[in-house]
């Protein structure tokens, strides 16, 4: 399963915010990518967004400035994944959706191809249980924007094979990404710490204690948070955040993970953060 210097394409399944960012990361390293999504409109948006993200990554020294980017191919069906060296699944944070996609992918690729699920909180072993070859599955948690943030949380499930982990670590090294490996559990490390803070920040705004800008200013100026929790929530996507919190709440029963009304109301209203033009902040000028 050695994929570090492999010239075969890396498949990314899911052309949303995370899938597009991960595809940009791989392309920036010079590796070809097959980006799969059953929505042609999502693929069209990704093909327009990726060149902008590549330029941004180079400006921020997150991708080689003089390197030739890999070739991007798009597809609308998983069955077109023959010949890839690894598959990174980056669909929505729902167990049934991820399981269905991973089962389909497992049937389309060989036993030596690592299956990488990008998840912010669903335990890897829950997903592996549905697969014909559970040893093929390993977890990652790329941070958004994936093409700028070089640290990746890697999660090894109880049934993940040694060769699968080694292949993923080689792939990440080839992408100039640092990996921190943690044990399998709901939310792993980053989501268990970050998401309840974002939930509490939203709750403070909902309770009228402070505005979003005031909460972020205090967290930046007093506690050194780089962007502030609510700008971070907008970047993650408030719908993604609600899904991740709900998954954590379902698996732990801890009230701090229960999505607060301020978040769920914004999602109901379609205010999902940067990607929709409005969340805790207004981004309409950025998107225009």
Per the CATH scheme, the topology name of the largest domain is Rossmann fold
Q: Roughly how many Å is the radius of gyration?
A: 18 Å
Order of helices and strands: EHEHEEHEHEEHEHHHHHH
Distance N terminus to C terminus? 44 Å
Instruction: Provide the low-confidence segments as ranges.
Output: none
How many strands, what sense, and barrel or not for the largest sheet?
Answer: 8 strands, mixed
- Structural domain tally: 2
Domain 3-hydroxyacyl-CoA dehydrogenase NAD binding: 10-184
Family: Belongs to the 3-hydroxyacyl-CoA dehydrogenase family.
Domain 3-hydroxyacyl-CoA dehydrogenase C-terminal: 187-283
InterPro entries: 3-OHacyl-CoA_DH, 3-OHacyl-CoA_DH_NAD-bd, 3HC_DH_C, 6-PGluconate_DH-like_C_sf, 6PGD_dom2, NAD(P)-bd_dom_sf
In short:
It contains eleven helices and eight strands.
Question: Topology of this structure?
Answer:
Blueprint: E1 10-13, H1 17-28, E2 33-36, H2 40-59, E3 72-75, E4 86-89, H3 95-108, E5 115-118, H4 124-128, E6 137-142, E7 151-156, H5 162-174, E8 178-183, H6 190-206, H7 212-223, H8 229-236, H9 238-252, H10 261-268, H11 284-287
Parallel strand pairs: 1-2, 1-4, 2-3, 4-5, 5-6, 7-8
Antiparallel strand pairs: 6-7
Helix pairs in contact: 1-2, 6-8, 6-9, 8-9, 9-10
Any overview of this molecule?
This protein has 288 residues and is an alpha/beta fold. The chain has 2 domains: 10-183, Rossmann fold; 191-279, Orthogonal Bundle (N-(1-d-carboxylethyl)-l-norvaline Dehydrogenase, domain 2). The protein has 11 helices and 8 strands. It has helices at residues 17-28, 40-59, 95-108, 124-128, 162-174, 190-206, 212-223, 229-236, 238-252, 261-268, 284-287, and strands spanning 10-13, 33-36, 72-75, 86-89, 115-118, 137-142, 151-156, 178-183. Strands 3-2-1-4-5-6-7-8 form an 8-stranded mixed sheet, sandwiched between helices. Helix 5 links the parallel strand 7 and strand 8. Helix 6 packs across helix 9 (238-252) and helix 9 (238-252) packs across helix 10. The longest helix has 20 residues, at 40-59. It is globular and about 55 Å long. The model has no long low-confidence stretch (mean pLDDT 95).
